[in-house]
Design goal:
265 residues; 0% strand; mainly alpha; globular
């Protein structure tokens, strides 16, 4: 066996994919992820509130499973093509870990942003056909944009949002790196990633609506009004910082060259 270092893709089967196909896959996957989460939040989470059918709404539990199940589907559908990142933070974390070439990061991030923005735009178009005033009401309420203070579902402050986005993004990226490792990964990687995302949302949606994903935050903020845009920077900066910390830490702790780990592209 050769002792020379090797570079691994985010998914063992993604190495042969063309750049164009990978970018389209990332856009489609990000579209799926954001559409599932935000549609559930706006159309189904509070369905029936204020009526005798109040128990019909899926609430935070439904939102959490919506994003987790969408992640499982997206990962298995698009992972073999692009690695199934579906999130700029994941792409940056993989690059920091030496598992994805830095030169391809901008293209992936742009594709993810486009896919996510199309998803929220589709939701707005659906909203235009809804009851009178429905779309204005949800936009005035922030369009499920991430936020703190008055824009937190439970009134948590700035510090809570920072800790959530930094810590839980780092944990999510570490799980992603572990289950997709080219030597130690598992065929059930998509299930592990999706269920981890579900658990994180269950724990943190009440704090700041849970981002972990700058593309998701940007896509909702563009329809969420001025305050959502003013707070958006937190949900770009801290998921990225958390992902980079996780990527560099995973590489240093678990992928040392002496142990046959991966190296930077």
């Amino acid at each position: 066996m050769s002792d020379s270092p090797r570079t691994a893709p985010a998914s063992p089967s993604a190495s042969g994919s063309g750049t164009g196909s990978a970018l389209i896959a990332e856009a489609f996957g990000s579209f799926l992820l954001v559409l599932a989460l935000i549609s559930t939040a706006l159309f189904a989470a509070g369905f029936g509130e204020g009526t005798a059918a109040a128990d019909k709404g899926v609430g935070f539990l439904g939102m959490s499973f919506a994003v987790g199940l969408a992640m499982i589907g997206g990962f298995y559908a698009f992972g073999p093509i692009s690695g199934g990142h579906l999130n700029p933070a994941v792409t940056l974390g993989l690059a920091a870990a030496g598992r994805f070439p830095w030169r391809r990061v901008p293209g992936y991030v742009i594709a993810q942003l486009v896919g996510a923005a199309i998803a929220t735009t589709i939701i707005v178009l659906i909203g235009l056909t809804g009851p009178v005033g429905w779309l204005k009401t949800v936009q005035d309420a922030g369009f499920v944009s991430n936020g703190w203070g008055d824009h937190s579902p439970s009134g948590f402050g700035f510090g809570g949002a920072v800790i959530v986005e930094l810590l839980f993004t780092a944990l999510f990226v570490i799980v992603f790196l572990g289950v997709t490792h080219p030597a130690r990964g598992t065929r059930l990687a998509g299930v592990a990633i999706g269920l981890t995302l579900t658990v994180i949302h269950l724990a943190t949606i009440p704090i700041d609506y849970t981002s972990l994903n700058p593309a998701r935050s940007i896509a909702t903020a563009i329809y969420g009004g001025g305050e959502a845009l003013a707070q958006l920077w937190v949900f770009i900066v801290f998921p990225i910082v958390g992902a980079l910390v996780a990527g560099f830490a995973y590489r240093a702790l678990f992928d040392l060259p002496a142990d046959g780990g991966v190296t930077a592209d």
